[in-house]
């Protein structure tokens, strides 16, 4: 249900919870409902009448959820680090302010049969 999704979105954004209303129209044996939801100060109305108040409110919630989901910017990629400059002849990076390769010790493994 979009009402749940919209409520979760409001909680994530630290907005107040959605406020719903519906209006009944037509005879009792065949009622039609329109729904409205107010989210973050904006009203969203169902464009068409629905068969139940619940369906009308869910349709309004869908419109609001789609609106706010589309307007949210996707997460940015983390910044990329620039490549290291090429090492000097001895393999050090001293000119870049980093340690030289002689400062690192790697284990040497040998296999005997």
From TrEMBL:
Q: Does the keyword Repeat apply?
A: yes
Give the matching PROSITE patterns: DS_RBD
Q: Which SMART domains match?
A: DSRM
| SUPFAM superfamilies recorded | dsRNA-binding domain-like
Going by the UniProt record, its keywords in alphabetical order are: Repeat, RNA-binding
Looking at the Swiss-Prot or TrEMBL record, what is one Pfam family this protein matches?
dsrm
Say if the entry is tagged with keyword Repeat.
yes
Q: GO molecular function of the protein, one example? A: RNA binding
Could you tell me which residues belong to the region Disordered? 51-113
Q: Where is the DRBM domain?
A: 1-70
**Protein name per UniProt:** DRBM domain-containing protein
